[in-house]
């Protein structure tokens, strides 16, 4: 009872809170400015009320605005904002206020305010380039400069020209907004003064970069314990880089805290107990609403977060920030031509934002786990994503909108032409564009799927070339959700989890593990939660996968493509068995035997660009296309941003990077690793790990490799004024 009351704030409570926000004082001025101008840039500190309040002011005061889209670079932020605002307005989620993220939409015909990811709005622009669904678009978190937001800048500038009645608001938490204003015809800037308390900065002593990077998780946990034992009451926010790291840190902190003998330790204050929460992109972290509530008296709340808590979500009550100084970022990997996830130092701007989280409600302290010198070495601002990530999906989207001359698109900061060329080249390798760079029928089909062009290509292949779309859709859906397996904290459970995991292993590789988990859950577990619990599988993940799968099925059917299974049942199939490597065996399953070949072949049709060959004597792999010298010299450029001094480990140059099988991979357990594999992507932690790896034979990709030699970049980018010329300046 008491708990329920605790969580259910009344409208009055919300009213009070809303009036206390910095933005509240400027309500009328803001409305006036919005009425007067078509475009407006709003800048204000994180937590000042931009995301949750401004749209409510507009709905209450501007009768001409009947539907508002607010974009967020992160799904979790879109949901959390929608939830907060519908609570504040006292409406049910999905009625007046809703959200729309990839594969998940809570909205109705009553919805006036829709929070969405920037990717969602971008995709809807394909069929609605004038954005006629909305009277106002708010591009929020513009300082993040996500790839999708950057493209939306260009598309919205065009839409504003076409529709004078459309209102556009760009909101940012940092001050470098002149560029935004300039881009939208020198539109006015409205700035909301923040109310920040002083934040003390504590630096770590100088250490080598490699040590800095190898030890920050441990040091973060130790620092939290130090703060907990020595500092006044107040919650702690710790910035780390990813889910695994956060889980690990939470485990360590729990252990250390349990070992504390409270009779021995002298606390400087009466706060002894702790409560620990994670925040990372996996949506279940949001289900713990308590993150956003103050901890009980005498308990200290400790939140471990990725950089989501830097500006996207605000955790109240934070007085201490522990900043690791690192972030996990997407980086274009010139060698493989795809994005890789890399842990890199944050920028100075990010460090300042992180510190600011400690001074929202009182004076605070930030413990920087790096030295003043290391701070001086950081980039002043984070490089926009468009300049450091693969543009393959973006270019496909733009081409579908009829924007063919990508190099001359209205970018707020243009990407390196080499990245555009590389994307067009990849699209050619997938068959989405022809040799002159024009969209093919296949490319048009691919663009209907809100997933990576590689996966959509594989799906289409599984429909048309190697019938197994039923299975491939499952694999694609499972690849579209976060962590499948839970990582329990206690040692005993960890072992049980490991054993549970092994029952899904497949000698063919991780794509088959995904398939096994999903199919077993549906078949044996009846799709319920209990089964997930027993098998250490995230229920939310498989449940989401089911919904994603259903949506993909609808898309496939809409395109008139057939859905077929490669599971036996037809005895004739037996004879058609072919070999994968030497040790051919089959997984048996309720519905009949699974033939892995069509699945591998469909995957190869798209992911052949991610073929890796094992080193003859050593336990790692090389990216085949590059190591075999199949790429033309103009494309093996090194990405200008990926300096190896920064990452410490990775050689971004044209030299060969050793690719390792992810230790968690099913293939990682094999005594004799396969000679040829394909992988879904690469993550650079301390080394380059291929994730989601499956075993193939060279025969499966040999013919496809022929296409690599057909690449003629001049022609691919030709047909535009200077496309050919700029396209070849890749070096
Ligand atoms: O967008 P901006 O960072 O300027 O602020 P906001 O997200 O609108 O947040 C305004 C206030 O609402 C903050 O004090 C948050 O603590 C609170 N809020 C919340 O409690 N729960 C949410 N899901 C979102 C915001
Ligand atoms: Mg915001």
UniProtKB/TrEMBL annotation:
Residues 31-193 form the Helicase ATP-binding domain. Keywords: ATP-binding, Helicase, Hydrolase, mRNA processing, Nucleotide-binding. It catalyses: ATP + H2O = ADP + phosphate + H(+). The keyword Coiled coil does not apply. GO terms for biological process: spliceosomal complex disassembly. It comes from the Eukaryota. InterPro entries: DEAD/DEAH_box_helicase_dom, HA2_WH, Helicase-assoc_dom, Helicase_ATP-bd, Helicase_C-like, P-loop_NTPase. Residues 220-402 form the Helicase C-terminal domain. This is RNA helicase. It comes from Rhizophlyctis rosea. The gene is PRP22_1.
């Amino acid at each position: 009872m008491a708990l329920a009351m605790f969580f259910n704030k009344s409208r009055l409570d919300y009213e009070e809170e809303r009036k206390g926000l910095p933005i509240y004082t400027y309500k009328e001025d803001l409305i006036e400015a919005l009425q007067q101008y078509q475009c407006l840039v709003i800048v204000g500190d994180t937590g000042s009320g931009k995301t949750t309040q401004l749209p409510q002011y507009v709905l209450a005061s501007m009768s001409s605005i009947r539907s508002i889209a607010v974009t967020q670079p992160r799904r979790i932020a879109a949901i959390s904002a929608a939830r907060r605002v519908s609570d504040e307005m006292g409406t049910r989620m999905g009625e007046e206020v809703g959200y729309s993220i990839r594969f998940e939409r809570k909205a109705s015909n009553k919805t006036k305010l829709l929070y969405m990811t920037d990717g969602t709005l971008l995709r809807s622009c394909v069929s609605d380039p004038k954005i006629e669904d909305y009277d106002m678009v708010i591009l929020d978190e513009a300082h993040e400069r996500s790839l999708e937001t950057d493209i939306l800048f260009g598309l919205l500038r065009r839409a504003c020209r076409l529709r004078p009645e459309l209102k556009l608001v760009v909101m940012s938490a940092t001050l470098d907004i002149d560029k935004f204003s300039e881009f939208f015809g020198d539109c006015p800037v409205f700035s909301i003064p923040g109310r920040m308390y002083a934040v003390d900065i504590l630096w770590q002593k100088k250490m080598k970069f490699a040590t800095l990077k190898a030890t920050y998780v441990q040091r973060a946990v130790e620092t939290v314990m130090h703060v907990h034992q020595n500092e006044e009451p107040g919650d702690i926010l710790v910035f780390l880089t990813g889910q695994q790291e956060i889980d690990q840190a939470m485990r360590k902190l729990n252990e250390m805290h349990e070992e504390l003998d409270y009779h021995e330790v002298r606390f400087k204050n009466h706060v002894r107990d702790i409560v620990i929460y994670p925040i990372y992109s996996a949506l279940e972290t949001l289900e713990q609403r308590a993150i956003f509530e103050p901890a009980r008296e005498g308990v200290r709340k400790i939140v471990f977060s990725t950089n989501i808590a830097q500006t996207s979500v605000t955790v109240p009550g934070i007085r201490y920030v522990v900043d690791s100084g690192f972030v996990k970022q997407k980086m274009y990997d010139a060698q493989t031509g795809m994005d890789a996830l890399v842990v890199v130092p944050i920028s100075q701007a990010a460090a300042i934002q992180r510190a600011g989280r400690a001074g929202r409600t009182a004076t605070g302290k930030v413990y920087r786990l790096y030295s003043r010198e290391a701070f001086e070495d950081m980039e002043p601002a984070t490089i926009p994503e468009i300049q450091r990530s693969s543009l393959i999906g973006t270019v496909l989207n733009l081409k579908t909108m009829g924007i063919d001359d990508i190099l001359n698109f209205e970018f707020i900061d243009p990407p390196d032409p080499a990245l555009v060329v590389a994307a067009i080249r990849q699209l050619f390798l997938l068959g989405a564009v022809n040799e002159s760079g024009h969209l093919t029928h296949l490319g048009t089909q691919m663009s209907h799927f809100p997933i990576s062009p590689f996966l959509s290509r594989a799906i289409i292949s599984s429909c048309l070339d190697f019938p197994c779309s039923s299975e491939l859709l499952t694999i694609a859906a499972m690849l579209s959700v976060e962590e499948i397996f839970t990582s329990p904290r206690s040692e005993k459970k960890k072992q049980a989890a490991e054993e549970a995991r092994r029952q899904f292993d497949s000698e063919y590789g991780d794509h088959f593990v995904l398939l096994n988990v999903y199919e077993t859950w549906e078949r044996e577990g009846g799709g319920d939660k209990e089964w997930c619990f027993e098998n250490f599988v995230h229920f939310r993940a498989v449940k989401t996968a089911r919904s994603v799968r259903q949506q993909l099925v609808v898309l496939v059917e809409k395109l008139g493509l057939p859905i077929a299974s490669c599971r036996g049942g037809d005895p004739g199939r037996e004879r058609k068995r072919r070999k994968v490597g030497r040790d051919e065996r089959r997984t048996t399953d309720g519905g009949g035997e699974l033939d892995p070949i069509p699945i591998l072949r469909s995957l190869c049709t798209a992911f052949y660009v991610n073929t890796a060959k094992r080193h003859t004597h050593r336990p790692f792999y090389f990216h085949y296309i590059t190591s075999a010298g199949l790429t033309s010299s103009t494309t093996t450029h090194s990405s200008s941003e990926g300096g190896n001094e920064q990452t410490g480990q990775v050689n971004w140059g044209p030299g060969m990077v050793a690719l390792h099988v992810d230790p968690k991979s099913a293939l990682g357990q094999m005594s004799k690793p396969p000679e040829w594999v394909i992988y879904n992507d690469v993550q650079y932690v301390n080394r380059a790990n291929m994730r989601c790896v499956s075993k193939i034979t060279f025969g499966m990709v040999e013919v496809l490799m022929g296409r690599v030699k057909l690449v003629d970049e001049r022609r691919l980018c030709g047909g535009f004024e200077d496309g050919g010329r700029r396209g070849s300046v890749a070096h």
